[in-house]
Structure formats: structure tokens, C-alpha cells
Design goal:
Number of strands: 9
Structural class: alpha+beta
Distance between the termini: 15 Å
Helix content: 10-25%
Strand order of the largest sheet: 4-3-2-1-9-8-7-6-5
Strand content: over 45%
Number of domains: 1
């Protein structure tokens, strides 16, 4: 799998990031772009189900079925749909995935790859 990280936002307990798969040819953005949530405590990586995006000034907004992400070049907040505290995030620029996240990413796509 080849990919390019587009956004990476970090907190002590989690990371949220978007990748673009470079090895997939499709006109469907859902086949190419993926937002993912990495829980550092459980070391679990899960897909965020994209609903919509918006931008107001320099603030980016992403809506997922699991919650809402708002971020600028200097800060971000993820508010889960389920009851729980909002997560304060720091954007990482350039968005280079650490080894821990990349390993979890490759494992997730191996698990979800259709059998040939």
C-alpha cells in the first residue's frame, strides 16, 4: 500500500489523521481518502466515517458519524458523538506518520483488504 498523509493532529491520548491512497484508482473519494482515529492506550486504529466537510476562514471542519473535527494551522478539537470530553489536538506539519501509526495503518488495511 502506498499513501500520502494529508493531515495529522496529535494529542497525548490519540491521533487523528487523513491519508490519500496512491495505489487505488477510483472516481469515488471514499475509496481513496481515509480519516482514521488512533487510540494510544489500546493501540487501536479505526476508520472515521466521513459525512461532510466545510471551511470557514482558516478553520477546517470535518463531520463524521463518530464526531466532529475542527482545526486550524495551530490547534484542533475533536468532539465525539458519544458522551465524553472533547479532545484538544495539535496539528503536525508536515503530516509525517510516526512508525507506530504507520504500522497500525498497514495492519488495518491488510485486515480489510478483500480476498483475491
Amino acid at each position: 500500500m502506498t499513501y500520502r498523509p494529508l493531515f495529522l493532529l496529535d494529542a497525548d491520548t490519540a491521533s487523528i489523521f487523513e491519508i490519500k491512497r496512491l495505489d487505488v484508482r477510483s472516481d469515488n473519494p471514499g475509496d481513496v481518502y481515509f480519516w482514521l482515529y488512533f487510540d494510544r492506550a489500546s493501540r487501536q486504529l479505526r476508520h472515521l466515517t466521513f459525512v461532510s466537510m466545510n471551511a470557514e476562514g482558516d478553520e477546517q471542519q470535518r463531520e463524521f458519524t463518530q464526531g466532529q473535527l475542527r482545526f486550524t494551522a495551530s490547534e484542533g478539537t475533536y468532539t465525539p458523538t458519544d458522551p465524553g470530553p472533547a479532545l484538544a489536538l495539535q496539528p503536525v506539519v508536515p503530516p509525517t506518520l510516526p512508525v507506530e501509526l504507520e504500522a497500525a495503518l498497514f495492519a488495518l488495511f491488510r485486515e480489510t483488504q478483500p480476498a483475491e
